[in-house]
Design goal:
about 100 residues, mainly alpha, two-stranded antiparallel sheet, flat
């Protein structure tokens, strides 16, 4: 569950530095209950690997559908999508907008 570092903090440098350290370390620790939940989910998933019911198979299908929809919207808006071969970030060339 990486990438969930959201929020803002503003204050004196000495306080913010300590906040950064606490924030960094708290986000990378995983509590026992979370570890157990992930372990149970993985045990279930290992049995389904390579089948259409696998979470990984379903995720690929779901993200492909979303990517295709986003690409279509971007193209209809006059921009040029740079379609990734892996991952889920879409880069868009928008230099033609307004010309």
């Amino acid at each position: 569950m990486t990438g969930w570092k959201l929020g803002w903090a503003y204050g004196p440098k000495a306080i913010i530095r300590n906040l950064q350290i606490a924030h960094q370390n708290c986000l990378y620790m995983c509590h026992t209950s979370q570890q157990e939940a992930v372990a149970v989910a993985l045990e279930k998933e290992f049995k389904l690997l390579g089948t259409p019911q696998s979470c990984f198979s379903l995720l690929v299908k779901e993200l492909t559908e979303k990517k295709d929809k986003l690409v279509s919207i971007v193209e209809k808006s006059g921009m040029i999508p740079i379609i990734p071969q892996g991952g889920y970030f879409l880069i868009v060339d928008w230099h033609l907008i307004g010309k």
